[in-house]
Amino acid sequence: MAEKKNKDQKPAVALRSPFTPEELDHFKQLITEKRESASDDVARMRAQLEDAREQAENDTAYSFHMADAGTDAMDREKLYLMVARQQKYIGYLDRALDRIASGSYGVCKVTGNPISKERLESVPHTEISIEAKLAQKK
Q1: Same domain flag for 99 and 63
Q2: Are residues 72 and 91 in the same domain?
Q3: pLDDT digits over 52-79, tens only?
Q4: Mean pLDDT in residue range 92-113
Q5: How many other CB atoms are there within 10 angstroms of residue 99's CB atom?
Q6: Are 98 and 43 within 8 A, CB to CB?
Q7: What angle do the packed helices 66-102 and 21-58 form, to 10 degrees?
Q8: How far apart are CA 88 and CA 110, in angstroms?
Q9: Cβ-contact 90, 41 below 8 angstroms
Q10: Does pTM top 0.85 for this prediction?
Q11: Are residues 95 and 122 in the same domain?
C-alpha cells in the first residue's frame, strides 16, 4: 500500500516544469510564432476558398466543363481539410501555452518524466517524451 502512495505522489512532484523561466519564455515565444504562422495559413486558405466559391458562382454552364468542376471541388475539399488540420495544430499550440502558464510544460503526461529540450525544440507542442512515443508505436 505504501508503494501505491509513492506512485501517487511522484507524478504530483514531477508536474513542475524542468525548465527555467528563461527557457519557458523561449518556448513561449517559439510556440507563439508557430501559432501566428498557422493562423496566417488558415486566413490565407479561407481567402482561397472564398475566391473559389465566387469563381464557381460566376462560371456559366457553357464556359465550364464538368471535369473542371470536379477538379475545383477536389481542390476546395483539400483546402477544407488543410484548414481543419491547421486549426487542430493551433489547438495543440494553445494547450502548450496553457501548460507553460500552469508550470507543467515539458513534463511527459505518460511517464511524468521531463521531455528533452531537443524534442521540444522540434515539436514544441508535444505532451509526451520520445520514450513514451516509441512505446506507443510498439
Answers
A1: yes
A2: yes
A3: 777 766 655 555 666 766 777 788 899 9
A4: 94
A5: 21
A6: no
A7: 160
A8: 21
A9: no
A10: no
A11: no
